[in-house]
Amino acid sequence: MNQSISTQVLALSAICLAVRAVQQIARGEALEPGVLQTLLQSIAEQNPAEAVDIYGGKLANLAGGYHILAAQLGDQPRKDLELTRYVMAVLVLERLLNKSKDSLGAVGKRIERLQQQLQHFQVTDDNIIASIADIYVEHISPLGNRIQIAGVPEQLKQSAVQQKIRALLLAAVRSAVLWRQAGGRRYHFLFQRKALLRETQQVLQQLA
Q1: Is-above-0.90 flag for pTM?
Q2: Is the pLDDT of residue 3 over 70?
Q3: Residue 140: closest CA among 103, 112, 178
């Protein structure tokens, strides 16, 4: 995978979009059209020709994520600390996954099965979402501390909501894989923040 700052920002934007979607679902809010499909489909895209192909081949599919990332990297004092906490937890999970050959192998086999299922069902089908959520529960969540999701209690009690959240967390982990493959490291948030922000703003100008 191309180790460039543009690919790093692409991956971070996708993580931000997935985490924001988790927040929205946990609060009972509606997602923007196409967001769920873009994020969940990315899990099955394992050998893209270009990084953007993971997300349907269009940077515009991640526009919301770029806006979130720009706000988080910018100088304005009010950040979404909850979102930051989720993003960092996802990056930790991905690092632990990368160190576990058994877990990586198991996830790979499950994704191959998912790709076969997607020949017959839409990625947003309830059964597919449940299958993706199951991958997260069985092979990702046990690797580290459980991510505590805040939201409306009545929402979080619903099985369908829980499955969507877990499926989106797996999508976030998939994008964290891309972030690492592109050379992204956590210390970049301190020492390359301005470069990341500049790239994010340039993409937003292109999309405007």
Answers
A1: yes
A2: no
A3: 103
Tokens of residue 108, six digits = 């790979």
Q: Cβ neighbours of residue 206 under 8 Å, at least 6 residues apart?
A: 59
pLDDT tens for 9-23 read: 999 999 999 999 999
Which of these, 175, 149, 178, lies nearest to 164 by C-alpha position? 149
Q: If 0-12 CB within 10 Å is exposed, 13-18 middle and 19+ buried, where does residue 94 land?
A: buried
Beta carbons within 10 angstroms of residue 125's beta carbon: 14
Residues 90/173, Cβ–Cβ less than 8 Å: yes
Mind listing the pLDDT tens digit for each residue in 112-124? 999 999 999 999 9
The whole-number pLDDT of residue 145 equals: 84
Alpha-carbon distance 208 to 95, whole Å? 34
The terminus-to-terminus CA distance of the chain in angstroms comes to 27
Longest CA–CA span in the chain (Å) reads 47
